[in-house]
Amino acid sequence: MNNFDKFIIETERLQCSPAENLELVIKYIAENKTITFFSWKMFDIVKPTFDPALADKYIEKEKEFIKILIKLKIKFIYIKLIPDELPRIFYGKGLNRQAITFAKQVEKYFKNIYPNTKVIRLTKILNRKTYDLVFYQSLSSGIDPKKLEKEMLFRKDKEIGLKAFGLFAAETAIIYRYFKNPVLLAGTRSIDTYKYEFFKYPQNRPTLPKLFVL
Hints:
This protein is α/β, with parallel strands linked by helices. It has one domain: 3-Layer(aba) Sandwich (Rossmann fold). The protein has eleven helices and five strands. A five-stranded parallel beta sheet has the order 3-2-1-4-5. Strand 4, helix 11 and strand 5 form a beta-alpha-beta unit. The mean pLDDT is 92.
């Protein structure tokens, strides 16, 4: 049994939903390419601190996933992304100091699990021109009305619900600009992946692979 067959079997038992574009992940493994596995860590704007006790309740599957990568000798980079541009985009608030503190707390926690974990604040890699271009073009691209209504209800604000789509489109564009072979690690709350794919930049980029292992 080859590595990618083992990878499929091992990850299937962890996932809460079928993977999206697993074929591309398998291709990366077969070609022995380095894969950038990333997930989001967002701080609460009201209380912007990382809660290790809460994280402990959900970390076991993630630990298992890292063990699989190491056991199968898959070449990978492990990243926690902090979307610290969100407070400014949504609310016009700059929370730079709080974001720095939060990122340090996340780094301390995850380096105890996997020492080579990288924690990156999105504002540190932000290409303002690309971000703004994608953000505003995506808002006029014909968003599915049902998806938009659902997001507005979730955000409890029509304007922020709309901005959320621009934000996800722009963030995904930045991810493809800076990371090699990105694969999103997600959980139950991210099963609806429309927000990552409704507006692609560049247009010929592949569907972002997603593994629901968190």
